[in-house]
Amino acid sequence: MAEKSPAASDTPAKVAVPLHRTFSSLPDLPDTKADADYLQVTGIDGLEATNKALATLFTHDPATVATRLSLPAGSAITYHQRSSRNAVVHTNSALVSILAPVSAESVEGFVTDYWLATTLTVPQAAEVKITDLFPSPTAASDALSDLVRRRLPHSDDECIKGSWDPDYASAQQWNASDTYAKFAVTPDGLVIGFAKGGLIPPPCGIFRMTFSWEELRPLMADRGLRLVAQL
Question: Which domain of life is it from (predicted)?
Fold first, then answer.
């Protein structure tokens, strides 16, 4: 039996009011030129843990880029990530959720593109995982892989539509939970960020897809439905 997540199951449904958002610039880091910021929220008491978790996620990330690119220590990196412009963000007094694209490049020309994401309960700052929305990890990956498989060949994105390859797709990890691990929870639906080369072959990069709560609701667990009721 899947372990019950207190982040998703123990939060009562309630009417949630918007929080005020601010975006603070990332501090200077050695060997890193950053065009980036990170989300902070105000509007109710007790947001210290939430803002600490948000700051930690985004301010620590540039230091991991060299490892992602297998670069030697001290390699100069240009790091791009503007949550205030390019991210999917939803904030209220029950949940804070963000999905932000990142692009980083070394002076040698190595490039990596990926997603940073977190969904936190307020004020506990407990992280909500994709598996918290569905009856089990298997149910989550099965439900989402089926939806994505049916939608990708008909994508509005010309690169995705033109690059769709059933043979390539059949070899990918459709049912791996980390395929759907980067997401934001919004009133419009569940927005999932997909990795470069994960489901669609190059030259397409990272991309995101939105799944409405209407299409997901029949597949979701009670604890996931309670989270959605707070949006």
Answer: Bacteria
Tell me the CA distances in angstroms from 172 to 18, 72, 161, 189, 193, one per residue in order: 39, 30, 17, 25, 16
Helix, strand and coil content of the chain, in percent to the nearest 5, comes to: 35, 30, 35
pTM for this model (two decimals): 0.90
What count of Cα atoms within 13 Å lies in the side-chain half-sphere of residue 48? 1
Q: pLDDT (tens digit, 9 = 90+) per residue, 42-97? A: 999 999 999 999 999 999 999 889 888 888 878 899 999 999 999 999 999 999 99
Length of the chain: 231
- CB neighbour list of residue 219: distance below 8 Å, 6 or more residues apart: 134, 139, 143
Backbone phi and psi for residue 179, each to the nearest 5 degrees, phi listed first? -60, -30
DSSP 8-state secondary structure symbol assigned to residue 217: G
- Go through 1-12 and write b for each residue having 16 or more CB atoms within 10 A of its CB, e for each that does not: eeeebebbeebe
> Is a pLDDT exceeding 70 seen at residue 27?
yes
Cβ pair 55, 120 in contact under 8 A: no
Q: What is the pLDDT of residue 9?
A: 41
More confident: 146 or 126: 126
